[in-house]
Amino acid sequence: MRGEEHALDGARRGFLAGVLRGAYGIEAPRALRPSLVTDYRRATFVADGQRITCDAALVVRDVATGRTAAADSGLVLVETKTRGKLTEADRVLHRYGLRAAEFTKYCGGFAAVRPELGANRWARAVRVAFPRVTGPGAET
């Protein structure tokens, strides 16, 4: 997968421009291009007003440098979604000692493939999630 193959077409640019103008009162930048390609497998579970997504086999690729980071093979990112309160899924995860962490695939992935950017609050999560970075200039 190459970033240039996924550039915004006219319809998507129009949608983005409308959202940015309407929500923020700003114009869309003219030179938008892909920066990070993410690939993962997702399972979604929905019941009783709750939604849980489980993302596994996460791989990110920096379009500019070609560096790639693969998440630990046993890692599953679990996100629970509801309106305002803990869900039963949250309580089950808590019973197993798992707590919420602020982490996004985009920011964590970029921090992994471009360590010069710094990971700041995600440093530990990035080291755990992405133990292997490969490609030009990757630290070994």
TrEMBL record:
InterPro entries: VTC_domain (IPR018966). Pfam families: VTC. It comes from the Bacteria. Residues 28-113 form the VTC domain. This is VTC domain-containing protein. The lineage of its organism: Bacteria, Bacillati, Actinomycetota, Actinomycetes, Kitasatosporales.
